[in-house]
Every structure is written in structure tokens, then in C-alpha cells.
Design a protein that fits this description.
Elements (H helix, E strand, L loop, with lengths): L4 H12 L2 E2 L2 E2 L2 E2 L3 E2 L10 H22 L17 E4 L2 E4 L5 H18 L9 E2 L6 H11 L2 E2 L4 E3 L2 E3 L3 H5 L3 H10 L2
Parallel strand pairs: 7-8
Antiparallel strand pairs: 1-4, 2-3, 5-6, 9-10
Helix pairs in contact: 2-3
């Protein structure tokens, strides 16, 4: 990703040789070494996590580039969208195909091997639009995912929901409508 050798050494030092002390009855203890990476709430944690998951995005982009994974196309626009990432939430997009299922399985496995991170397959949901339940069940079984249902929540927003039915009662929406129809 283009990080300098000096920067990588600093990160290595933070991860391998960090020491901490704790307060016991208001008094600090002696320092001791952290055995497993960064502690919770360490300001470096989210930054390093984003660098690691960027690797997943790069794998998806490369797979799409070489024709091993087909992303979602929007009309007759050039290119396709393979994924959306925000913090610790990744949404992988693509049309229904056995090739995409096989590629997704390989990409996630490669990500685990290259990042030394474990993918929690029990949290992953497979969603289908205009896809039969039997195909979704078969693909989810092959990927060791669970089948999700639409609408679902992504970054706090309902995806696949009829937003008009959700917001028709909202007084703010009614005020906006009145302003727009003046």
C-alpha cells in the first residue's frame, strides 16, 4: 500500500513491544508487556483495521479486473461495483452465478490467510433480489453463510424497504412536501 519502511517499523514496534500499566485502587501498577496486539480502545486499532480490510477490497477489485468475480452493473454504465465498505461493515455485490459463489469463497479464504484475520461466517448473510429461495439456500450452504431476508439494515438504513411506507407519517417529510409544492 506504499507505506514507508520507517512507518512499518513504528507499527511493528506498537504491536510487538507495547507495555501498559493499570490502576489498582487509584495507584498505577508496574508496566507489563501486552501479549496480543493492541488493547481495546487503542487509537491505532480502527486505523490498522481499516488497512487490513482494505486488503479485502483490493482482492475483490483484482478478482473483478481479471474476470474471476462479476460485480453489480448499473444499466449501460461502464464498470461494475463489487463492494461497499464502511468501518467494519462490508457489502459484496454481484449477480447470481456459481462462478461468483466460488470466487467469493476463494477471496474470503485468501483474505483470512493473507491478513491472519478470521472471517466470522456465522455473522455473514446472503441476500438475493429476484432470486429463488432454493438457489439462495444452496449458495449459502456452499459459502457457509446464513440466508438473510429483505429488508435489512445496512449502516442504520433499511435496504429493500419501501421508504414511502416508512416515512409517510413523519411530520418532517410532510413539511418538506409542503415547501416543495409551493
Amino acid at each position: 500500500m506504499g507505506f514507508s519502511l520507517q512507518w512499518r517499523k513504528w507499527m511493528d514496534e506498537c504491536l510487538r513491544f507495547a507495555t501498559i500499566s493499570v490502576l489498582v485502587n487509584g495507584s498505577p501498577t508496574g508496566k507489563f508487556r501486552v501479549e496480543k496486539g493492541l488493547r481495546q480502545e487503542d487509537p491505532l486499532s480502527p486505523f490498522l483495521f481499516l488497512i487490513v480490510v482494505e486488503g479485502l477490497g483490493m482482492l475483490l477489485n483484482k478478482a473483478s479486473e481479471i474476470g474471476r468475480f462479476e460485480g453489480h452493473s448499473f444499466g449501460n454504465q461502464a464498470g461494475s461495483l463489487t463492494h461497499l465498505q464502511f468501518a467494519d461493515c462490508t457489502l459484496i455485490l454481484g449477480p447470481r452465478s456459481l462462478e461468483n459463489v466460488d470466487s467469493m469463497k476463494a477471496i474470503l479464504h485468501l483474505f483470512e490467510l493473507s491478513s491472519d484475520r478470521k472471517v466470522n461466517f456465522h455473522k455473514i448473510r446472503l441476500f438475493g433480489i429476484k432470486t429463488s429461495d432454493s438457489w439462495l439456500e444452496e449458495a449459502a450452504k456452499a459459502l457457509n453463510f446464513k440466508v438473510g431476508s429483505i429488508p435489512f439494515i445496512y449502516l442504520g438504513l433499511p435496504v429493500g424497504a419501501n421508504l414511502r411506507s416508512i416515512f409517510t407519517w413523519d411530520p418532517v417529510i410532510d413539511k418538506v412536501k409542503k415547501i416543495l409544492t409551493r
